[in-house]
Design brief:
- This protein is an all-alpha fold and 283 residues long.
- Helix content is 71%, strand content 0%.
- The protein has 9 helices and no strands.
- Helix 3 packs across helix 9 and helix 8 runs antiparallel to helix 9.
- The longest helix is centred in the C-terminal third of the chain and has 32 residues.
- It starts with a helix and ends with a helix.
């Protein structure tokens, strides 16, 4: 499917047929009145068009910023801004009202679903999602920190390191996103989601205690598997952003790309937080 920006453009789209008809008349027919002036005007127009084309070709090439296309800088700026909003909300919740984390969790879930199914990204709703997740992470992190001193810093460092490693693996070509890789990741994520939901229900209903089926050695292995899934999801996110830039999608979709990265980073951080707690023997 062709890019609508090019197909609808006066320069890159299909040329429009313009220009006046030549006067009709056979051999020996006298030119119509004013024909010489019209012919002169036509040549003048052609010369003007040629000069305009020459100026266009000599002009510097338009950049993605000039054409309002998605750029990597757009994604970096939007992602950094959302992370800043999340950190500020998390810090405020940590020190003021850590007990609000359930509110942030529910609001983040609702806003996450709304943003995920919107065709056009909404900067306001995505920013509100960052605030909600900040409230959730600030409260839940304070709770973990009260039990295990230093665990939050370790989880943050692990998240940043994994993000950098995933980006390096993708940029270096050591990991390639193929249809087979994407299918495997989707199946694994669905299976992990079902397992997590079952485990949460069993813990909340009192059937299992502590971490439920995620305790002990099995819990450590499952935690490592979950971290691997989140890291693989980051690589798929990078590939999606790359394709968006190469295909020239509108710049507004930088918000959608930043939202996707934020969702994966929040998931990765929570998995590290849980894995470190299990390794420390916290119930």
């Amino acid at each position: 499917m062709s890019n609508p920006v090019f197909s609808n453009s006066d320069v890159f789209g299909e040329p429009r047929r313009t220009g006046a008809r030549r006067p009709s008349g056979g051999v020996g027919t006298a030119p119509a009145p004013g024909y010489g002036q019209a012919q002169h005007g036509q040549y003048g127009a052609q010369a003007a068009d040629a000069a305009a084309l020459e100026n266009m070709y000599n002009a510097p090439s338009a950049t993605t910023a000039d054409t309002k296309r998605l750029t990597y800088d757009d994604v970096i700026v939007k992602t950094g801004g959302l992370l800043a909003v999340l950190v500020v909300a998390a810090a405020a919740t940590w020190y003021v009202a850590p007990g609000l984390w359930p509110v942030g969790m529910i609001a983040g879930l609702v806003l996450g679903l709304v943003n995920a199914f919107k065709k056009n990204p909404s900067p306001v709703l995505i920013s509100l999602y960052a605030v909600a997740q900040g409230i959730f992470l600030g409260g839940i992190s304070a709770m973990f920190e009260s039990v295990s001193n230093g665990i939050v810093l370790q989880a943050v460092l692990a998240t940043v390191s994994t993000f950098a490693a995933a980006l390096w693996l993708y940029k270096s070509g050591r990991v390639r996103v193929t249809p087979k890789f994407t299918r495997w990741l989707l199946i694994a994520m669905v299976g992990y989601l079902v397992f997590s939901l079952v485990n949460v229900v069993l813990v909340w209903t009192g059937v299992l205690g502590g971490w439920g089926m995620r305790g002990g050695t099995i819990g450590i292995l499952i935690g490592l598997f979950a971290v691997g899934l989140a890291a693989a999801s980051l690589i798929v996110d990078f590939d999606s952003i790359k394709r968006g830039v190469e295909q020239g999608v509108p710049a507004k979709f930088a918000w959608a790309a930043a939202f996707g990265l934020l969702v994966t980073l929040v998931w990765l951080y929570l998995e590290f937080l849980r894995l470190l707690a299990i390794l420390r023997g916290d119930n």
